[in-house]
User: Which sequence fits this backbone?
C-alpha cells in the first residue's frame, strides 16, 4: 500500500465502514459458510503462579515471552520474562505503570519501519501516553509518545505492523474507541474514530488478503488465493520467533 491509511468509523447501516488502506482485524471477520467440525485442541499449561498478568509478546533478544504483571498498580515491578519451560524471571526494575499494561515487542523482519529490535512499547496507564522500554529493560522512556487530544487509555492493544500494511508503524487502540498509527520517530496519526471501547487486539492484514488466505501451521494456505488477490504460492511472513523457532507462530493462530 502507499503511505496513506483510510479512516474507520461508524456507519448507520452496518455499524462499520472501512476505507482501503489499513485493515483492522478485530472481530470484523465476515460470516463464512458452515465448515466441518473442527478437530478438538488440547491446551497444556506450561506455567502458573504469575501475579495478575495482562499483556505478553515474544521478546526476540532473550528468546522468551515478555509479560506485564502485578495489575493494577505495577508493584513491585511491571514486567517478567517467561522461558519455554515455564520458568519466569524479572525483566526489569521498571514499576508503577498502572492499569492494564499491554505491550508490543519489536521483532527483526522486513517491515520494522525503523523500530529497534528488542524495544518494547507499552501503555503507561495515562490517557494517550505510550512509553518505551529499551536497553534490555533497563531504561523507561515515559512518555515516548503522547497522542494529541486522546482521552482513552492504551489498554486495548498495541501492534507493530510486521506485514507492511501500515508502513511498519505501531498501531494502537484506546478505550475511547480511537485507532492510531505511530511512526518510529514518534509521529502519531489518528486513523479511526468512534469504533467503540471494546476494540482489542489490533493487527494488520496486507491488501488483497482475506481470512481464508491466512496460512495454517506448516505454511499450507486455508484455501487458494482469490482472483485478483496475492499470486499463487505466496505466503504471509510469519511472526518471527527468533533462533531455535523456525516458522514461529502463524498469523492465523496468533490472531484468531
Assistant:
Amino acid at each position: 500500500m502507499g503511505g496513506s491509511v483510510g479512516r474507520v468509523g461508524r456507519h448507520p447501516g452496518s455499524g462499520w465502514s472501512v476505507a482501503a488502506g489499513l485493515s483492522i482485524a478485530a472481530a470484523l471477520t465476515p460470516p463464512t459458510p458452515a465448515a466441518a467440525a473442527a478437530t478438538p485442541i488440547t491446551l497444556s499449561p506450561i506455567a502458573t503462579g504469575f501475579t495478575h498478568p495482562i499483556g505478553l509478546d515474544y521478546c526476540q533478544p532473550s528468546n522468551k515471552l515478555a509479560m506485564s504483571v502485578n495489575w493494577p498498580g505495577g508493584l513491585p515491578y511491571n514486567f517478567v520474562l517467561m522461558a519455554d519451560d515455564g520458568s519466569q524471571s524479572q525483566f526489569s526494575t521498571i514499576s508503577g505503570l498502572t492499569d492494564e499494561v499491554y505491550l508490543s515487542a519489536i521483532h527483526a523482519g522486513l517491515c520494522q519501519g525503523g523500530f529497534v529490535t528488542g524495544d518494547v512499547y507499552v501503555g503507561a496507564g495515562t490517557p494517550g501516553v505510550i512509553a518505551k522500554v529499551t536497553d534490555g529493560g533497563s531504561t523507561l522512556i515515559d512518555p515516548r509518545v503522547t497522542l494529541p487530544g486522546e482521552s482513552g487509555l492504551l489498554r486495548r492493544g498495541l501492534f507493530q505492523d510486521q506485514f507492511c500494511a501500515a508502513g511498519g508503524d505501531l498501531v494502537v487502540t484506546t478505550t475511547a474507541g480511537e485507532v492510531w498509527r505511530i511512526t518510529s520517530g514518534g509521529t502519531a496519526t489518528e486513523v479511526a474514530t468512534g469504533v467503540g471501547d471494546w476494540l482489542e487486539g489490533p493487527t494488520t492484514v496486507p491488501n488483497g488478503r482475506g481470512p481464508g488466505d491466512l496460512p495454517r501451521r506448516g505454511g499450507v494456505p486455508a484455501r487458494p488465493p482469490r482472483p485478483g488477490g496475492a499470486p499463487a504460492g505466496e505466503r504471509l511472513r510469519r511472526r518471527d520467533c527468533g533462533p531455535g523457532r523456525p516458522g514461529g507462530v502463524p498469523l492465523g493462530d496468533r490472531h484468531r
Observations:
- The first strand starts at residue 8 and ends at 9.
- The chain has two domains: 48-204, 206-223+230-256.
- Confidence is low (pLDDT under 50) at residues 1-30, 214-256.
